Amino acid sequence: MSSHTATPSATFVSTPVVLTIAGSDSGGGAGIQADIKAMSATGSYACSVITAITAQNTLGVSAIFPIPLEHVEKQLDAVFTDLNVVAVKVGMLADSETIKLVAAKLKQYHPEFLVVDPVMVATSGDLLLKTSAIDTLKSELLPLADLITPNLPESAALTNSPLPTDDLSMRAMVEKLRQLNLKAVLLKGGHLEKEDNSTDLLIFDDRIEEFTAKRIQTLNTHGTGCTLSSAIASYLAQGNDLLRAVKLGKNYISHAIAHADELQIGQGYGPVNHFFKGHRDIV
């Protein structure tokens, strides 16, 4: 007769689930890889739907392979029919058909929160989406979002405006963004490199919340947009309201950039430091 030692009942902690729908970065600094790191570092469980595979490193992108539409759909169904997804972050979408599919699935499954980082413009300034796809993004996906997080080139593309070159022209874009009739826009001013400070504007219909931080001089800024939007989605999933989620996300990305030079990754523009010392203590 054998005896068995009883083990104590396990204590389960409910971890908020956050889904990233984006492209893969083989170099690990941006896209799906950055999203998963940011969500994990900020205390959420990350799952993913890959929309494109890029051949990419710190020196640039050499190839992009869009995932067939049918397989994007199967990934979405697989995640949503099993996992309790609270928040979704959307990044790179390859074309109009992918945008339409993602929008339809989000309407079908109704996640509580949606953050869209409208990845449309490469660092070189080249458009990554055709004009027709940008129109589809504006009509089908952006109206579903609780927050969109465009940088200045993306904001210019969304509003058919000249690229802002200083703080004044950046602020002049606010009303044009409001005309898109979205719930909230985080207009990121990181591209104004001549400014001593980096200022982001959280734009609502009735007010603007301003976030200003001292500009950090580093070449390791690859994946900052992906990281910030993912951190905000993570903090929303944890029960924070939008303003606090943005504040926490901004605090996290500022620390990740400040600690970026502690990493020596690649020969070009390296990644931010997602797992800097003390990342779990961000409040």
From TrEMBL:
Gene3D superfamilies: 3.40.1190.20. SUPFAM superfamilies: Ribokinase-like. Its EC number is 2.7.1.49. Residues 25-273 form the Pyridoxamine kinase/Phosphomethylpyrimidine kinase domain. Keywords: Kinase, Transferase. Pathway: Cofactor biosynthesis; thiamine diphosphate biosynthesis. It holds the Pfam family Phos_pyr_kin. GO terms for molecular function: hydroxymethylpyrimidine kinase activity; phosphomethylpyrimidine kinase activity. It comes from the Bacteria. This is hydroxymethylpyrimidine kinase.
